Amino acid sequence: MSDAASQPANSPSADRILQAAENLRRNIQGDLHEHVVEALYADAARIADRAVSRPGVAAQPTFDRTLDRILTSRLWGFPIMIALFALMFWITIAGANAPSGWLAWLLVDQGWPMLRHAAEGLGFPWWLSGLLIDGIYLATAWVISVMLPPMAIFFPMFTLLEDFGYLPRVAFNLDKAFKKAGAHGKQAMTTMMGFGCNAAGVVATRIIDSPRERLIAIVTNNFALCNGRWPTQILIASLFLGSLVPAHLAGLISAGAVVCVALLGVFFTFAVAWTLSRTVLKGEVSTFSLELPPYRPPRVLRTLYTSLIDRTIIVLWRAIVFAVPAGAVIWLSANVKIGDLSIAQHLMQSFDPVGVFLGLNGVILLAYIVAIPANEIVIPTILMLTVVATGSAEVGQGAGVMFELDSDASTKALLQTGGWTVLTAVNLMLFSLLHNPCSTTIYTIYKETGSVKWTALATLLPIVLGVVVTFLVATVWRLLQ
Question: Most distant CA pair in the chain: distance in Å?
């Protein structure tokens, strides 16, 4: 007997059932998943109301409910969130200055000369001591001194907010904005983690269940200024933008410029997420049930372990692994000659026409290529390459040796000798935001996605945007001159 004959005469076919379900779904206003979740919670609330008595609840609101009314309100939620994270960034930047200076003094000012003298005493040839000490060791020392203190400050504070239960409230506040951009509400937390380190932000995308929306979060995480790019932003803004106004306004203008670049990164996060969700990553926005956990007093020892061991040390170790070959490449490019010029000089001259076209220069483009392993060595690399390009022997540094000058005035004078203008400074700040991720982040993206295609997209997309933005700014700037 056939399947059709075995069915009762009045039994609807599967096609009719599916068609009826599709018609009913079309008649439902809004998002079907949201209606299902709301119905489930409404039924659970009705059952709880019938079975559970809560004497005195209305007269004595709980601490969690009172705090949630403030932290998730439309009036106070966003201002508190912005102020809290701005405070975290300020504490990170200001608090990292002293330990970064101490590490630089220990590893560079003291450690580097000691190793140089030791190499001379052991009879090392100049090229071997230069490669090992001036190249590999110095690059690694700069990465440690610049990268370790900010991460050691930012990650514990971030983990404290996570343990306290505030980060789910951040996701609740930003869920609507990310949903409109076609992304997941939990991306708010991974973006905030990216402000500490983009590699850690990429790892944090594991909290997003949807593979499509997790890819969006991974690709756009580089638009969050990581701690390795903050020093570049702050230094260039202070040298070139703060000097345009009276001294009492210099700090305000410099800080405002850096904040504007950070907010521009947030804008690109939403814009690129919106574009991806409607093109190569097209799909329906998933709905997730976000249960706000109770507020808990953070456990300090666990927080320190989680932030310092699981996050800071692991990310720092990856950066060191990539900084070692970078230091060797930087030293070799400045000391190996082809004809009368070093490899670095040849490359800078080749890149210079493109760099000037974008409102930058060949030194900056080469610095960002050789400093791919770590954003922390961009400024020392730029200074070193500027010395190589200008032949500034009075600086007293050997070729291929990364360094920082003693004062902002001498740093600005050296850069201006290399042809820097206000346009160069502005476009460097923009390019610092919109360029490829560091090698640690690229490697992390590949490990998390297992895909060369998505890794290439996450790497090349910011570069394309950086070229377009700097070209437009340079064009408009020159037209207005």
Answer: 100
pLDDT at 276 (0 to 100): 93
> 185, 174 in Cβ contact below 8 A?
yes
Q: Which helix (H) or strand (E) segment is 338 a member of?
A: strand 337-338
Q: Which tens digit of pLDDT belongs to each residue from 169-223?
A: 877 888 788 888 888 888 888 887 888 789 889 998 998 888 899 999 999 999 9
Contact assessment for residue 295 and residue 64, using Cβ atoms and an 8 Å cutoff: yes
> Token pair for residue 417?
């000798």
Angstrom distance (rounded) from CA 302 to CA 293: 18
Please report the DSSP string for 2-33 in residue order: -HHHHS-TTPPPHHHHHHHHHHHHHHS-S-HH
Give the separation between CA 231 and CA 468, rounded to whole angstroms. Answer: 24
Q: How far apart are CA 279 and CA 221, in angstroms?
A: 18
Percent helix, percent strand, percent coil in the chain, to nearest 5: 75, 0, 25
pLDDT at 301 over 70: yes
Residue among 172, 179, 267, 173 at smallest CA distance from 225: 267
* CA-closest candidate to residue 233, choices 462, 434, 473: 434
DSSP state letter for 396: -
How far apart CA 343 and CA 155 sit, in angstroms, is: 39
Instruction: Report the alpha-carbon distance of residue 231 to residue 376 in Å, rounded.
Output: 8
Residue 311 carries which DSSP code?
Answer: I
What single string gives the DSSP state of each residue in 105-132?
Answer: IIIIIIHHHHHHHHHHHTT--HHHHIII
Torsional class of 91: left (φ above 0), alpha (ψ -120 to 50), beta (otherwise): alpha
Strands 341-342 and 337-338: antiparallel
How high does pLDDT run on average in the chain? 81
